[in-house]
Design brief:
This protein is an alpha+beta fold and about 140 residues long. The chain has helices at about 20-70, 80-90, 95-100, 135-140, and strands at about 80, 105, 110, 120-125, 130-135. The strands form two sheets. The protein has a three-stranded antiparallel beta sheet with strand order 2-4-5. Strands 1-3 form a two-stranded antiparallel sheet. A hairpin with a 5-residue loop joins β4 (about 120-125) and β5.
């Protein structure tokens, strides 16, 4: 058997990946995430809106109960802003979240105001299309 004078060099088997391969994989994952992120965001917003619609009645009852308890123990009361309202009434965390939401409208009120004055208005659900309004009498007068 005749052997050739030229012998190809045998390179060692690769044991890892190159930097280029790693960067390509990271870029592909980034592209997939950029395609999926808007979908995940939309699904999250829809789920949150549905949970708001389901929880609205319970949160409204809890808010009424806590504010009535605060006002029943005081002859005079005054709420200047959302934060003042939350702190004085020591609202449940779920009620605080709803009051602090940007879609919630709060109007300062006190014991001298008209009882039919709308003082809190929640906008909730998909695209904040649903509204729950609370008058001063709903929140302060025990029934």
């Amino acid at each position: 058997m005749i052997r050739s004078a030229y012998r190809p060099c045998r390179s060692r088997a690769k044991s890892g990946i190159t930097l280029i391969e790693l960067l390509c994989v990271i870029a592909i994952i980034g592209i997939f995430m950029s395609l999926l992120l808007p979908t995940f965001s939309r699904v999250y917003r829809q789920a949150k809106a549905m949970s708001e619609e389901i929880e609205e009645g319970a949160v409204a009852d809890l808010l009424r109960h806590e504010v009535r308890n605060y006002c029943a123990g005081r002859k005079q009361y005054h709420f200047d802003n959302k934060n003042d309202f939350e702190t004085k009434c020591d609202l449940h965390p779920k009620c605080r979240d709803w009051i602090e939401a940007s879609a919630t409208i709060f109007v300062p009120f006190n014991d001298q105001d008209s009882t039919n004055k709308v003082v809190v208005s929640f906008h909730y659900g998909r695209r904040y299309a649903l509204t729950e309004d609370f008058t001063k009498s709903e929140l302060t007068v025990m029934r």
